[in-house]
Each structure stands twice: as structure tokens, then as C-alpha cells.
Amino acid sequence: MEFVITIVGSIVAKAVELTISPIKNHVKYLSNHQQYVETLKNGPERLKDAKDELQHSVDAAKRNGEEIKGDVDEWLSAVDKKIPELAKKVTELSLKAEEEAKAVADLIEHGKFERVSYRAAPQGIVVAPVKGYEEFESRTSILNGIMEVLKDDSVSIIGVHGMGGIGKTTLVKEIARKVKGKLFDSVVIATVTQAIDIEKIQNQIADFLGLKFEEQSMVGKAFRLRERLKEEKRVLVVLDDIWEKLDIEKVGIPLGDEHKGCKLLLTSRELNVLLNGMDAQKKFPIEVLNKKEAWDLFKKMTGDCVESCDLKPIAMKVAKKCAGLPIAIETVAVALRDKSLFEWKNALRELERPLSSNFTGITAAFSAIKWSFNYLKSEEVKRTFLLCSVIGHNGLVEDLVRYTLALGIFDGVYTMEEARNKVLTVVANLKASALLLDSYNDKFFDIHDVVSDAALTIALKDYRMLLLRDHDPKELSDKLKKKGWSMISLRCPQIIANLPKEMECSGLSFFHMAYDGVVKIPPNFFKRTEGLKVLDLFRMQFPSLPESIIHLADLRMLCLKGCAVDNITIFGELKNLEILDLAESGIKELPKEMAQLTQLRLLDLSSCSELKIIPPNVLSGLSKLEELYMGWSFVECEKGGVVENERKNASLDELNNLPCLSTLDVHILDVRMIPKHWFVEKLDRFRIFVGNNRTYDCCNNYESPKALNLTLYTNIDLDNGMKMLLIKTENLCLEELEGVKNVLVELNNWKDLPHLKRLHVKNCMHVQYITMNKIGVPRLCFITLENLP
């Protein structure tokens, strides 16, 4: 079992004090010169340890673009000066040993900084090993050429171009992996795609840098990002899949004289975009694999079975149909691995069929992807894959979970947890089929742009699914008026700004619309879409929802994530609603009518900073609720908010009336509000933050389904409810433990934490060690002591 213990001191002085406090103690009590000298001998090493602790926090603050306090820099400089002086004094056994030892103690005392910066930087994303990269001669020569150009200080923008599916993304990611920590201190990667979203690009870069934006505007984020990138001496920015000119200034990437250590590596299908749009100084074309390389890759993906006498001729013809495109070779080869001869023959016949005229990419790629799609095991897996193409690059698995459950795609799936397990299984299988790709972590999936194009073409032709992008507005308006669509996704500002008065589409089950701005949805827009099961409106600004929503009697999922919406009393009419997502929205109060949503399984109120009121008995009325997300949001719940002898707000007690509750993400101000809440016994997934200051949450740095961030300002006995949470916890963060030296012994004699994987101790003034009895580590020292306890 993995077990990680981390000690963090944003109040670094306490770590410093604990590290070298023996010096002060000895200085106080030693009475002769020799003892002073012996004490002084340890001074340089201990001062260095103290400096290293402080420098760690300073570096973290700088990575997040924060200003370091002047006295912190002065202290670091003083230590740098003092260490060699002490070494010299010790070697001379100076008669001033007592004076020097006291000087060390004074220097340590001045190192007690209350804080070095304004907040701790979250962990950034690392460049993961590249899956699927092959060192073919045709690719290696290009890679080496790009590596040489990256060393040239006169070149700041480099372009890689080639047809879709040729391997551009794989190549530049391999380059990013090789240069990280060698040619460049940092490497960041962002996917641009056909529909340019500057804020999405900014957020991707920020994730790699461990930067969390406080700014709301695109301009503000650009300024912050620019300043943060300047903190890196040498940084490579990879912008993948550029379709048209991208304004680097608007994104916030400093180049040229502004930051000579910053270089830009671009990929595009179009050479002209790189030369005329992005001013690339060097360009590298990528061609299809030659015959030998293509066959070698095909054999590797299928196995040695293709070398058999009866299979090899057919296999070579199948490989040839893939036309040297890695994306085509991989999807077909994986699907045919360990298959019989008749299946190979059938595959060859289908790959030779005429193709759809709607596909804008390469013929061989579409043919291969279409065949691989048809080869998927079941209709539910196919529909899930098409949903992935609608969600697009670096999509959230959680969105897929909610969509599939609301649409009823999987038979025999009745709970959120069952849906999540099913979706994770399907996503893993789609990755194994080379139709989906890995992303940052298991919370996301990615999809190749060529695969996405092919999938959307299949969706349009065979599944009546329409994704509207930035094309001719009139053409798209005509398409939107057609009545036969089963799913519609609108990402076209021209259409969204001029919606028709009504959308007559009774068979429509899924409607998604994303637009970062003010939108006026006509009152009767949804009047004739009575079969709608999923309504997802993203980042829109409107005062209230259209009245026609009351006609959506069969609606199972409503998502208003990031929407500036105020009046939501109409929710009470949506009696069959199972999933309600209001995350990051501008709601101020939940309407009491929400208590009528007795079929609700999931309620997401994450990051609703303006939410102040949840009326009593609303939460307790949601008797089928399985998952409740309120992280970084409403914190008044446990107070109960009594006004004129009448409770104004919901309380934690209401969660005891939810027999199905299994997932909880919540911020609780006081640990003493948890006692007597037996609902914690049934939680399978939780992220609970306890304390009144949530400027930093160490639990967010790890992918654990059971995380607890606990702030205790006094040494109190913990109740049974809290102990139950601790027993289940995998990721535990302890903060502000006043007067506690031995964590598990002094805090109510905690002994058994059988599932604990990570322990993170922060801002704990006196903690010295932890005692554990049943997880294989009897006693684990937290700090540098003179001897083990």
C-alpha cells in the first residue's frame, strides 16, 4: 500500500525552529568554551537545512507568480553570508564561539516569517510519458532537427505541419518530454482546436504551471500568465492543432525581446497557417510512414500472428489500406488482433467500400475509424463513443457519467456509482481500441481530432446527431430547423445569438449550448422539444430560464454550469429531474420549490460563491439524493441561520434524512458541527474541508475519492462521526494543530487509519512526529531530530 507523508510549512519559521532548536537550547545551557564550539560545529549544516525549508516555499510562491517579501530575501542573503563565516570560525576554534553561537540563534529567530507570500501554489501538471511514440527513422530525423533548432536562441517560433492523423501531436509531446529539465526548465502544452477558445488555452497553460487564476477577465488572465511565464528562465510552450491565426498577445505568451527564454512549438495541418498566420521561423513537414515503417507498426499492434502463411497476404492488404497513417494503422490493427481469417477478409472488404462525402479529413483515416467504430461490441458503447466526440478534447469523464445516466444509455445501471463504474470501463476499452487517448489524469479523456471528425460524421449520418460549429450561419440555421435530430450541440455564436422562436423537434433527447456571453433564449424555444432528457447550457448569461422549460416533463439532467442566472423557481416543475448541475453559477438562493425534486440523484453546487441561502427542509426533501457537491461554495449550512426564532438556512442534520447519500463534497466551518451526523457512515466518496480559512486545499493535489482536510485551532476530543471519517480517509491534510507534538497520540488517541495513503501536515507549530501501529510504519519521524523518539 502506498503511503506518503508530507510536511509543509507556509509559516516556514516553525519548521525552521523545530529543525535547529537544539542550537538555542544548547546555547542557553552550555557553560564552557568547548561546548560552544561543539554546538557551533553543527551550525552551518542546520542553517542550510533552515534555508532549504524556506527556499522551498519561496520557489513555490514564485511559480505561482507571487511577489516575495523583502525581509524574506534579506534573511536568505544573511544565511548565505553566515554559513561560510561559521565554517571558518569552527575550523579556527575561535574564542568567540559563544558569541557566534548566539548569533546563529538570533539569525534563526529572525527567520520566523509569518508568511513568505500570499498563497501556496497548487501542483502543476507534468509531461507524461508519450504513449504510442515509435522511433521510426522518418520521425527521428525530424525530432533531432527540431531539437537542434530549439537550441538556437535566434529562433522563437517553430512549426510542425502535416495531414490529420500523421502523428504531429505524438511527435511534439515526445519532444516536450525529452527537453523538460534539460533544454527547458518548464514545458507547457495546450490544445487549440478548430473553434478557438482563448480562455481554455490560458487555463491549460496555467494547469501545467500550477497557476490558479484569481482574475475573471481574459485580459487579466493574459497579464497574470505573461508574468508567470517570465518567472521561468527557459520555457517551451507547445500549442497543438492550430487551424487559423491565434493572437499570442491575447493568450499571454511573452516572446522575443519580452522573454528570450520562451519558445513556441506549433502544430497545424496547414503550412500557410504556420507561415502567414503564426510567423513560424522554422517549419518541419511530417509525411506518411514508408511501406516498411507502416508494416512494422501494423505488426507491432497486431502481434506476430500476421506473419502466418495464410494470414499475411490479407494482413498486408489491410495495412496498405491504412495508407501509412499511424491513426488508421493503430485503430484497425488493434481491432483485428487475435481475430480469425474470415474476420480479416471481411475487414478488407469493408475498408474498400466508398466513403462518406461529409468527412473533411483523410480517406484512409475515415475508412479505418469507421470500420473500428462498427467493430465496437455494443450499441451502448458506440453511443458513448459518439458522446465523447461531442464533448471533445480533454473531456471530463464525469460529464460522460452524467450524460449516459440521464439518457439511459446503459441497461441495468440504476445508481450514480454504477454509472461511473460502467463509463470508466467503457472509456478504458475505447482507449485500448485507440479510439480515445489518455489525458492529464483519469478524470479526463482525450480524442484525436481526426477520430473526432470521423465520429461526428458518423453521428450526423447514422445517429441524427448535429454539432454546429463556426460555418455559414444561414446553412446552420436551416439545419437547426430540421425536425429529425436526436442530439444537438451548439457552439456557433452566430446561431446562438439568433435562435429561432421555437425549435420543433419532439424526438430530441440531448441539447447542449455553450456561449460565454449574454443570450436571450426565446420564451417558447423548448415548447416543442417535450422528449428532451438532457439540457446543458454552459457559461451563459440570462436573468431567468425560458418559461417553455415547464414543458420538459421528461427532463432528467439540467446543467447550468458557469451561467449567470438568478431566478430558478421554475425548477420545481421538473419533477423527473435526476441530475442538477449549478456549479460556478451566479445563483444566490435555492428556491424552496426544489424540495419537490424527489427523483434527484445528484446536486452540484460547487464554487457557487454567491450562494447564501438554502432554505430549511430543501435538502432533506431530496430523499433519493446520492451525490451532493458543495465544495468551494456554500458554508453557512451547519450554522442553521436562525432569524426571529425561525431557521433561515439548511443544517447538516438534514443530510441524516438522505438514506441514499454516498458522495459528499462540502466545506464545514467547525469540526464540532459533525457530531451525531450518522450520514458519514455511509459515505463511499468524500472531499470534506473543515475550517474557516480555505485559501489552499492540499486534498485537491491528489486523485483520491476519500479526502479530508482538517483544521483544528484547539486540541479537542474528536467524536465518533469524525473518527468514522478518519477510518475511511485515504488522503488526510491536518492544519493548525495547536499544541500538538505527537499527532495520532495526542488527538484523542487516534490509532487505526487502515486506508490512509497520504498525510499532509501544514502550519502545525509544534508537531514533531507521528505514531502509527498497524500500517507497517511503527514510528515515523517528521523532522530532523537529534535522536528518534
Characterization of this structure:
The chain has 789 residues and is α/β, with parallel strands linked by helices. Among the domains are: 12-110; 137-285, 3-Layer(aba) Sandwich (Rossmann fold), CATH 3.40.50.300; 291-391 and 403-446, no CATH class. 36% of the residues lie in helices and 15% in strands. It is built from 24 helices and 26 strands. Mean pLDDT is 81; it is low at 7-31, 117-122, 640-644 and 772-789.
Question: Layout of helices and strands, plus pairs?
Answer:
Elements: E1 4-8, H1 12-29, H2 33-41, H3 43-63, H4 70-92, H5 97-110, H6 137-150, E2 157-161, H7 168-179, E3 186-191, H8 198-209, H9 218-230, E4 235-242, H10 248-251, E5 262-268, H11 271-277, E6 282-285, H12 291-302, H13 312-321, H14 326-336, H15 341-351, H16 363-374, H17 379-391, E7 395-396, H18 397-407, H19 416-432, E8 437-438, E9 444-446, H20 449-462, E10 465-468, H21 473-480, E11 487-490, H22 493-496, E12 510-518, E13 534-541, E14 557-559, E15 579-581, E16 602-604, E17 627-629, E18 642-643, E19 646-647, E20 663-668, E21 685-690, E22 706-711, H23 720-728, E23 731-735, H24 743-746, E24 758-762, E25 769-771, E26 779-781
Parallel strand pairs: 1-24, 2-5, 2-6, 3-4, 4-5, 10-11, 11-12, 12-13, 13-14, 14-15, 15-16, 16-17, 17-20, 20-21, 21-22, 22-23, 23-24
Antiparallel strand pairs: 7-9, 8-9, 18-19, 25-26
Helix pairs in contact: 1-3, 1-5, 2-5, 3-4, 4-5, 6-7, 8-9, 12-14, 13-15, 14-16, 16-20, 17-18, 17-20, 18-19
